[in-house]
């Protein structure tokens, strides 16, 4: 029930905008119409002015979260100087130049010179070594993309945009003005809308993983002024999940994407250790594990997946783990010691990264796989070379094998593993990396169409078959760029991208999915990157597998290059991702005569 004052406000505003409302029914529908019509649009227009819209000519500087006005600040907060001559940089070229005690990236495209942060806001890669697309730069390490117009992050991973600085051309000299703090950090936060108490809409985000986290903050960044509630079954705020298999002893605070203060400042409610029990889509209501029911206007579901644990004799013993949450990582790390024997079931990325982490801490690591080689996504030749590389680092393998039974000690901990081939393997710790199951069970009676594998079909706007219900991340069987297919792909960066697109569409922007799947792994200091998707019928390798310096082209039956992988050959995978994003098609014929000639034709 609204207070008398609230009723008066609603009545006055609705009268001004010719929205009919009775005195008996004060629903939030009227407020929804009003705020969607005016406040959100006004905020977005002011945001364009603040960020310089298409020109980067307004100063990009850190501001209070709820501010919308523009304040250049004191002069000693800024540095301004000539960084180069106009002719020092060619068309479609990127170069770093000194600005004060830091660097700034200068880019010329379509005759226009832009100045942006020199490093990726994710892990700090030099963007000058990345791929220049059409009006944006793609990071060479993990594929994040940033707009030249305003520094906004357009593709992921990482939540933050990069700074975009003022540029003046005076007598052939390029002068740049930048805020000192942004030069040092090479990142900035979004300009956020302020929560309006008389905006009665509620948008719910179910899931506190990478997709849910990005959606929640982008709702504010895109101008939503109603209530935002993010529900997560995790006990901590959203964090950088890919780090878990590489740094199992990481402190929770060190991997958080945002602090509690950030969520408080932007009026984003976060419900920790809470899961969704059921969804009543007809009445727009969600029931939570704590017994609460919350009404919503729109909802984004990004509940991700749970790690599978094989049900075999002895699987209830102690010291058997999966690796999905920060608690899982810490529990594994606590059991590692100099005399520990670790067995890892599964030869996917989680299993291999866990092996690389554990081997330096324990007596012995043995990886068990049912296939002949690990990491099948890369193909046989690369998979076999990676297995050799791991063996060089003292990791053992039992391939074409599996666990028949887990044998325990008297204290309930595991002792050994009885294998399919009849052998027995000593093991104090067993880590299972044998796939995941989608967390969509709670939606069974909601009316949302669920596929047999638990994924949910979406359209190119991440909408489901139920109005105002959006789905993203691992569980989304979503359309892929330049194909007629849908796929559910469990990539971290893609999940974050889904979160942004969902937020934009929940705010009425009608933004289509336009991304190339991109993932990476770090194995004993070697980064392997992969962009694209699909089943390859032919593989072409350029470079030296033995030296771990190579590029792999994956082609389908029609001779189209559908994916690319590399090791120690940056930025080739980012170039391919950007090439594909620009609507270009790379073929077998293109790479036969000159495998890398296409990189010189990015802008033709």
Automatic annotation (TrEMBL):
CDD domains: Rieske_AIFL_N (cd03478). Its cofactor is FAD. Gene3D superfamilies: 3.30.390.30, FAD/NAD(P)-binding domain, Rieske [2Fe-2S] iron-sulphur domain. It comes from the Eukaryota. One of its GO terms (cellular component) is cytoplasm. The keyword Iron-sulfur applies. Residues 81-176 form the Rieske domain. Keywords: 2Fe-2S, FAD, Flavoprotein, Iron, Iron-sulfur, Metal-binding, Oxidoreductase. GO terms for molecular function: 2 iron, 2 sulfur cluster binding; metal ion binding; oxidoreductase activity, acting on NAD(P)H. PROSITE patterns: RIESKE. InterPro entries: FAD-oxidoreductase/Apoptosis (IPR050446), FAD/NAD-bd_sf (IPR036188), FAD/NAD-binding_dom (IPR023753), FAD/NAD-linked_Rdtase_dimer_sf (IPR016156), Rieske_2Fe-2S (IPR017941), Rieske_2Fe-2S_sf (IPR036922). Belongs to the FAD-dependent oxidoreductase family. This is Rieske domain-containing protein. It comes from Chironomus riparius. The lineage of its organism: Eukaryota, Metazoa, Ecdysozoa, Arthropoda, Hexapoda.
């Amino acid at each position: 029930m609204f207070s008398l004052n609230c009723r008066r406000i609603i009545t006055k505003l609705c009268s001004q905008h010719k929205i009919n409302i009775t005195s008996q029914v004060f629903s939030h529908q009227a407020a929804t119409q009003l705020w969607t019509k005016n406040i959100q649009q006004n905020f977005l227009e002011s945001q364009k002015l603040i960020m310089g819209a298409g020109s980067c000519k307004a100063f990009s500087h850190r501001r209070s979260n709820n501010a919308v006005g523009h304040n250049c600040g004191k002069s000693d907060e800024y540095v301004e100087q000539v960084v180069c001559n106009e002719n020092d940089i060619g068309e479609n070229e990127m170069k770093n130049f000194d600005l004060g005690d830091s660097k700034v990236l200068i880019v010329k495209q379509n005759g226009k010179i832009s100045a942006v942060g020199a490093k990726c806001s994710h892990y700090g890669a030099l963007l000058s070594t990345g791929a220049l697309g059409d009006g944006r730069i793609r990071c060479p390490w993990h594929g994040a993309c940033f707009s030249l117009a305003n520094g906004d992050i357009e593709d992921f991973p990482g939540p933050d945009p990069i700074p975009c600085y003022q540029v003046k051309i005076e007598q052939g000299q390029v002068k740049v003005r930048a805020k000192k703090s942004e030069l040092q950090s090479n990142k900035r936060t979004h300009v956020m809308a302020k929560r309006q108490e008389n905006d009665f809409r509620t948008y719910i985000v179910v899931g506190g993983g990478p997709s849910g986290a990005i959606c929640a903050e982008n709702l504010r960044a895109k101008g939503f002024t109603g209530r935002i509630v993010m529900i997560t079954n995790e006990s901590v705020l959203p964090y950088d999940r890919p780090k878990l298999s590489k740094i199992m002893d990481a402190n929770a605070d060190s991997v958080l994407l945002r602090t509690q203060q950030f969520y408080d400042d932007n009026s984003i409610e976060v419900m920790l250790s809470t899961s969704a029990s059921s969804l009543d889509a007809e009445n727009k209501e969600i029931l939570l594990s704590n017994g609460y029911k919350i009404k919503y206007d729109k909802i984004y579901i990004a509940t991700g997946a749970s790690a599978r644990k094989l049900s075999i004799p002895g699987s209830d013993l102690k010291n058997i783990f999966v690796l999905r949450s920060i608690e899982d990582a810490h529990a594994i790390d606590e059991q590692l010691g100099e005399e520990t024997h670790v067995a890892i079931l599964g030869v996917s990325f989680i299993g291999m990264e866990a092996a690389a982490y554990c081997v330096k801490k324990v007596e012995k690591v043995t990886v068990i796989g049912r296939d002949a080689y690990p990491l099948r996504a890369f193909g046989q030749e690369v998979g076999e070379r990676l297995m050799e590389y791991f063996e060089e680092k003292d990791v053992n393998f039992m391939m074409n094998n599996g666990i028949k039974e887990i044998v325990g000690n008297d204290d309930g901990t595991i002792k050994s593993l009885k294998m399919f081939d009849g052998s027995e393997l000593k093991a104090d710790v067993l880590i299972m990396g044998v796939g995941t199951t989608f967390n969509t069970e709670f939606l069974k009676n909601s009316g949302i169409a669920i596929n047999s594998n638990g994924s949910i079909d979406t359209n190119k706007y991440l909408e489901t078959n139920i109005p105002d219900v959006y789905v993203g991340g691992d569980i989304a069987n979503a359309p892929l760029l330049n194909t007629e297919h849908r796929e559910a792909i469990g990539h971290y960066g893609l999940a974050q991208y889904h979160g942004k697109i969902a937020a934009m569409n929940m705010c009425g922007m009608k933004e289509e999915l336009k991304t190339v799947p991109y993932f990476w792994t770090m194995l004993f200091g070697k980064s392997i990157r992969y962009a694209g998707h699909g089943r390859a019928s032919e593989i072409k390798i350029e470079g030296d597998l033995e030296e771990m310096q190579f590029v792999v082209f994956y082609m389908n039956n029609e001779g189209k290059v559908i994916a690319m992988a590399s090791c120690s050959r940056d930025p080739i995978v980012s170039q391919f991702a950007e090439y594909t994003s620009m609507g270009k098609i790379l073929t077998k014929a293109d790479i036969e005569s000159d495998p890398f000639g296409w990189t010189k034709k990015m802008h033709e």
